[in-house]
Design a protein that fits this description.
The chain is α/β, with parallel strands linked by helices and 198 residues long. It is built from 6 helices and 6 strands; from the N terminus they run βαβαβαβαββαα. The two termini are 26 Å apart. The mean pLDDT is 96.
Length: 198
């Protein structure tokens, strides 16, 4: 168990009344039933970084900000990622983009997938996020979970829960199966490369 891959579920919005907590709790309940990976929440509320104004890109210079260092250490400790992302004006939240600007090597050659919500299921935010992650050398995966306005309004206005939409469980299972495979495979590749370099 100690050698199983570690996957971080990154909550990409920090608003007080964010919707993200509903899909987060639902997804973690599904993920924690698995024995082939360890899942942990990485909440950007716990990493309140200022707007990126470092002396240089993290590609060249590690950040000086202490919270940003802690954020980078957390990302480096993980082998794969699930981004829970809202859609803000057809893109990701500013706080998520800012957090990604503080890291580089910590994400390299690791996989990521997405649970998105909002207009069009948050898919436009995911497409922007894929472009950003490509620059960080992250392998973004095909299978993800999209929560549209029908589900969101059912939860927010009608007292429903994520469990009232069983087709989302099918999407989540497929997403997690794919992510765990890629996470283990890329981790093996990174470890093999490290052994060769040593």
């Amino acid at each position: 168990m100690l050698d199983t891959p570690r996957i971080g579920v990154i909550v990409g919005t920090t608003r007080e009344n964010r919707f993200a907590d509903a899909p987060l709790d639902w997804l973690m309940a599904i993920a924690r039933k698995r024995t082939d990976a360890r899942f942990e929440t990485v909440d950007l509320r716990d990493y309140p970084m200022p707007f990126f104004e470092e002396q240089g890109s993290p590609f060249y210079v590690p950040p000086a900000n202490e919270v940003a260092k802690a954020w980078g250490e957390k990302i480096a400790s993980l082998d794969g990622y699930i981004f829970i992302t809202a859609e803000y004006n057809h893109s990701i939240s500013g706080v998520l983009k800012n957090a990604l600007d503080y890291v580089y090597a910590e994400f390299n050659r690791k996989p990521a997938t997405f649970l998105s919500y909002g207009g069009a299921g948050g898919t436009r935010a995911v497409e922007h996020l894929r472009h950003i992650l490509a620059e960080l050398q992250v392998a973004s995966l095909k299978w993800n979970v999209t929560v549209g306005m029908t589900e969101m309004l059912g939860i927010m206005r009608e007292g429903k829960t994520m469990a009232d939409y069983p087709y989302l469980v099918e999407s989540a299972d497929k997403m997690l199966d794919d992510l765990v495979w890629w996470t283990a495979t890329l981790r093996d590749g990174r470890q093999g490369q490290a052994r060769i370099a040593a």
